[in-house]
Design a protein that fits this description.
InterPro entries: UPF0145_dom_sf, UPF0145_YbjQ-like. With about 110 residues, this protein is α+β, with helices and mostly antiparallel strands. The protein has one domain: Hypothetical protein apc22750. Chain B (Translation Initiation Factor IF3, 2-Layer Sandwich), CATH 3.30.110. The chain has 2 helices and 4 strands, in the order ββααββ. It has a 4-stranded mixed sheet. A hairpin with a 5-residue loop joins β3 and β4. The longest helix is centred in the middle third of the chain and has 24 residues.
Length: about 110
């Protein structure tokens, strides 16, 4: 599945538009990652636990969106946009959403 942030696929003609598709992932950050991140917040440095969780959530959201586009018979997704949001009363949840237009290529 071709996924692009542009409104076209270079060198390809769009034969039909199959609708907007979405991928959503909401994941919790566990207490150990929170503790490690709080230490890094004080002492500096990168939080590998948060980075791994973010990367995983992003990949899952893209895979879900691709599957939904495939179920519509699409070959590509154009105009893809991705958003991140922190949720929960203690900001303990991470939401990653992506959307784009599923298209069939000629």
């Amino acid at each position: 599945m071709i996924i692009t942030t542009t409104n076209e696929v270079s060198g390809k003609e769009i034969a039909s538009y199959e609708g907007i598709v979405f991928g959503e992932v909401i994941t919790g950050i566990n207490i150990f990652k929170d503790f490690g991140a709080s230490l890094r917040n004080v002492f500096g440095g990168r939080s590998q636990g948060y980075e791994d969780e973010l990367m995983s959530a992003r990949e899952e959201a893209l895979a879900e969106m691709s599957q939904r586009a495939s179920s519509r018979g699409a070959d590509a997704i154009i105009g893809m946009k991705m958003d991140y949001e922190v949720l929960g009363t203690d900001n303990g949840m991470l939401m990653v959403t992506c959307s784009g237009t599923a298209v069939k290529l000629a």
